[in-house]
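Example 9 (inverse folding). The structure is encoded as follows.
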Protein backbone atom coordinates (compact mmCIF):
# COMPACT_ATOMS: atom_id res chain seq x y z
CA UNK A 1 0.00 0.00 0.00
CA UNK A 2 1.26 3.46 -0.92
CA UNK A 3 0.74 6.49 1.32
CA UNK A 4 0.76 9.96 -0.25
CA UNK A 5 0.78 12.95 2.08
CA UNK A 6 -0.10 16.39 0.73
CA UNK A 7 1.47 19.04 2.95
CA UNK A 8 2.11 22.78 2.89
CA UNK A 9 2.28 25.47 5.51
CA UNK A 10 0.50 27.79 3.07
CA UNK A 11 -3.26 27.82 2.72
CA UNK A 12 -4.93 28.10 -0.66
CA UNK A 13 -2.22 26.27 -2.58
CA UNK A 14 -4.45 23.44 -3.80
CA UNK A 15 -3.74 20.61 -1.36
CA UNK A 16 -7.26 19.20 -1.42
CA UNK A 17 -7.56 19.44 -5.20
CA UNK A 18 -4.28 17.56 -5.58
CA UNK A 19 -5.34 14.95 -3.02
CA UNK A 20 -8.69 14.16 -4.63
CA UNK A 21 -7.30 14.05 -8.16
CA UNK A 22 -4.57 11.60 -7.15
CA UNK A 23 -7.18 9.43 -5.44
CA UNK A 24 -9.51 9.57 -8.45
CA UNK A 25 -6.66 8.72 -10.82
CA UNK A 26 -6.03 5.53 -8.88
CA UNK A 27 -9.75 4.85 -8.54
CA UNK A 28 -10.33 4.93 -12.30
CA UNK A 29 -7.47 2.44 -12.66
CA UNK A 30 -9.38 0.03 -10.44
CA UNK A 31 -7.43 0.59 -7.24
CA UNK A 32 -9.13 0.82 -3.86
CA UNK A 33 -8.25 3.38 -1.23
CA UNK A 34 -9.25 6.39 0.79
CA UNK A 35 -8.55 10.01 1.59
CA UNK A 36 -7.78 10.93 5.18
CA UNK A 37 -9.10 14.47 5.62
CA UNK A 38 -7.17 16.17 8.43
CA UNK A 39 -8.27 19.71 7.57
CA UNK A 40 -10.81 21.13 10.07
CA UNK A 41 -12.57 22.76 7.12
CA UNK A 42 -13.32 19.19 5.92
CA UNK A 43 -13.29 20.21 2.26
CA UNK A 44 -12.34 16.73 1.04
CA UNK A 45 -15.09 15.22 3.18
CA UNK A 46 -17.68 17.58 1.69
CA UNK A 47 -16.38 16.69 -1.79
CA UNK A 48 -16.79 13.00 -0.98
CA UNK A 49 -20.39 13.57 0.11
CA UNK A 50 -21.15 14.93 -3.37
CA UNK A 51 -20.05 11.70 -5.02
CA UNK A 52 -22.42 9.02 -6.20
CA UNK A 53 -19.81 6.33 -5.59
CA UNK A 54 -18.40 5.00 -2.33
CA UNK A 55 -14.84 4.99 -3.67
CA UNK A 56 -12.60 6.60 -2.77
CA UNK A 57 -13.75 6.86 0.80
CA UNK A 58 -13.07 10.01 2.81
CA UNK A 59 -12.40 9.90 6.54
CA UNK A 60 -12.16 13.04 8.69
CA UNK A 61 -9.37 12.65 11.22
CA UNK A 62 -6.96 14.37 13.55
CA UNK A 63 -3.22 13.98 13.40
CA UNK A 64 -2.95 11.46 16.22
CA UNK A 65 -5.42 9.15 14.40
CA UNK A 66 -3.50 8.93 11.13
CA UNK A 67 -1.32 5.95 11.96
CA UNK A 68 -4.24 3.84 13.24
CA UNK A 69 -6.36 4.61 10.17
CA UNK A 70 -3.50 3.66 7.85
CA UNK A 71 -2.97 0.37 9.66
CA UNK A 72 -6.69 -0.41 9.35
CA UNK A 73 -6.71 0.53 5.67
CA UNK A 74 -3.78 -1.76 4.98
CA UNK A 75 -5.42 -4.63 6.87
CA UNK A 76 -8.50 -4.22 4.65
CA UNK A 77 -6.44 -4.47 1.48
CA UNK A 78 -6.41 -0.84 0.37
CA UNK A 79 -4.00 -0.03 -2.44
CA UNK A 80 -3.41 3.57 -1.42
CA UNK A 81 -4.10 6.27 1.14
CA UNK A 82 -3.95 10.01 0.41
CA UNK A 83 -3.65 12.36 3.38
CA UNK A 84 -4.95 15.92 3.02
CA UNK A 85 -3.47 18.18 5.70
CA UNK A 86 -4.45 21.64 6.98
CA UNK A 87 -2.25 24.74 6.74
CA UNK A 88 -0.59 26.12 9.86
CA UNK A 89 -0.78 22.81 11.72
CA UNK A 90 2.73 21.55 12.14
CA UNK A 91 1.87 18.55 14.32
CA UNK A 92 -0.71 17.13 11.93
CA UNK A 93 1.48 17.75 8.87
CA UNK A 94 4.45 16.23 10.66
CA UNK A 95 2.45 13.11 11.52
CA UNK A 96 1.29 12.84 7.90
CA UNK A 97 4.80 13.29 6.52
CA UNK A 98 6.27 10.67 8.83
CA UNK A 99 3.98 7.90 7.59
CA UNK A 100 4.23 8.85 3.89
CA UNK A 101 5.95 6.98 1.11
CA UNK A 102 5.71 10.18 -0.95
CA UNK A 103 5.23 13.74 0.31
CA UNK A 104 3.80 16.19 -2.23
CA UNK A 105 3.99 19.94 -1.65
CA UNK A 106 1.70 21.93 -3.96
CA UNK A 107 2.77 25.51 -4.54
CA UNK A 108 1.33 28.32 -6.62
CA UNK A 109 3.99 30.25 -8.56
CA UNK A 110 3.72 33.39 -6.44
CA UNK A 111 6.09 35.10 -4.02
CA UNK A 112 4.06 34.32 -0.83
CA UNK A 113 3.77 30.65 -1.76
CA UNK A 114 7.44 30.29 -2.62
CA UNK A 115 8.42 32.08 0.60
CA UNK A 116 6.29 29.65 2.63
CA UNK A 117 8.21 26.68 1.20
CA UNK A 118 11.02 27.18 3.70
CA UNK A 119 8.65 26.32 6.56
CA UNK A 120 7.41 23.21 4.80
CA UNK A 121 11.00 22.29 4.00
CA UNK A 122 11.80 22.45 7.72
CA UNK A 123 8.81 20.22 8.46
CA UNK A 124 9.67 17.47 5.98
CA UNK A 125 13.29 17.62 7.16
CA UNK A 126 12.12 17.13 10.75
CA UNK A 127 10.05 14.16 9.57
CA UNK A 128 13.18 12.81 7.84
CA UNK A 129 11.29 12.68 4.54
CA UNK A 130 13.09 15.37 2.55
CA UNK A 131 14.22 12.88 -0.11
CA UNK A 132 10.66 11.63 -0.48
CA UNK A 133 9.25 15.17 -0.73
CA UNK A 134 8.50 16.79 -4.10
CA UNK A 135 7.09 20.20 -4.94
CA UNK A 136 4.23 20.27 -7.44
CA UNK A 137 3.65 23.61 -9.17
CA UNK A 138 -0.08 24.24 -9.16
CA UNK A 139 -2.37 26.72 -10.93
CA UNK A 140 0.43 28.22 -13.02
CA UNK A 141 -1.03 31.16 -15.00
CA UNK A 142 1.86 31.75 -17.39
CA UNK A 143 5.02 29.97 -18.43
CA UNK A 144 7.17 32.87 -17.24
CA UNK A 145 5.87 32.63 -13.68
CA UNK A 146 6.27 28.86 -13.78
CA UNK A 147 9.92 29.19 -14.80
CA UNK A 148 10.60 31.69 -12.00
CA UNK A 149 9.00 29.31 -9.49
CA UNK A 150 11.09 26.39 -10.73
CA UNK A 151 14.28 28.37 -10.25
CA UNK A 152 13.27 29.45 -6.74
CA UNK A 153 12.40 25.87 -5.75
CA UNK A 154 15.77 24.65 -6.99
CA UNK A 155 17.51 27.34 -4.94
CA UNK A 156 15.73 26.13 -1.81
CA UNK A 157 16.96 22.63 -2.62
CA UNK A 158 13.66 20.78 -2.65
CA UNK A 159 12.86 18.15 -5.27
CA UNK A 160 10.66 19.43 -8.09
CA UNK A 161 8.06 17.12 -9.62
CA UNK A 162 8.43 16.90 -13.41
CA UNK A 163 4.69 17.43 -13.86
CA UNK A 164 2.71 20.54 -13.01
CA UNK A 165 -0.83 21.89 -13.17
CA UNK A 166 -1.94 25.00 -15.06
CA UNK A 167 -4.92 27.20 -14.25
CA UNK A 168 -7.86 25.29 -15.70
CA UNK A 169 -11.57 25.57 -14.93
CA UNK A 170 -11.93 21.77 -15.12
CA UNK A 171 -10.26 21.46 -11.70
CA UNK A 172 -12.85 23.64 -9.97
CA UNK A 173 -15.83 22.38 -11.98
CA UNK A 174 -15.00 18.73 -11.33
CA UNK A 175 -14.38 19.37 -7.64
CA UNK A 176 -17.73 21.11 -7.22
CA UNK A 177 -19.50 18.08 -8.69
CA UNK A 178 -17.71 15.58 -6.45
CA UNK A 179 -15.47 14.31 -9.22
CA UNK A 180 -11.87 14.37 -10.33
CA UNK A 181 -10.87 15.76 -13.71
CA UNK A 182 -10.34 12.23 -15.03
CA UNK A 183 -14.06 11.62 -14.47
CA UNK A 184 -15.28 15.08 -15.44
CA UNK A 185 -13.35 15.47 -18.70
CA UNK A 186 -11.11 12.42 -19.33
CA UNK A 187 -9.76 13.74 -22.63
CA UNK A 188 -9.17 17.31 -21.46
CA UNK A 189 -5.94 19.16 -20.77
CA UNK A 190 -6.38 19.03 -16.98
CA UNK A 191 -6.80 15.24 -17.16
CA UNK A 192 -3.63 15.00 -19.23
CA UNK A 193 -1.74 16.88 -16.52
CA UNK A 194 -3.02 14.49 -13.85
CA UNK A 195 -2.06 11.48 -15.99
CA UNK A 196 1.43 12.90 -16.43
CA UNK A 197 1.79 13.30 -12.68
CA UNK A 198 0.53 9.77 -12.05
CA UNK A 199 2.94 8.23 -14.55
CA UNK A 200 5.77 9.87 -12.67
CA UNK A 201 4.41 8.83 -9.26
CA UNK A 202 4.13 5.23 -10.43
CA UNK A 203 7.89 5.15 -10.91
CA UNK A 204 8.74 6.33 -7.40
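The amino acid assigned to each position is listed next.
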Amino acid sequence: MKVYSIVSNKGGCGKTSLAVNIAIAMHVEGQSGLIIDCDPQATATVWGQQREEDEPGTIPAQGHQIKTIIEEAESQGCDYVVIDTPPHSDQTSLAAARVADVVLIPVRPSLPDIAALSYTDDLVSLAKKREQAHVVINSAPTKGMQNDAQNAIKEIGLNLAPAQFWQRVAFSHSFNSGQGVLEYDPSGKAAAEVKRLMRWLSRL
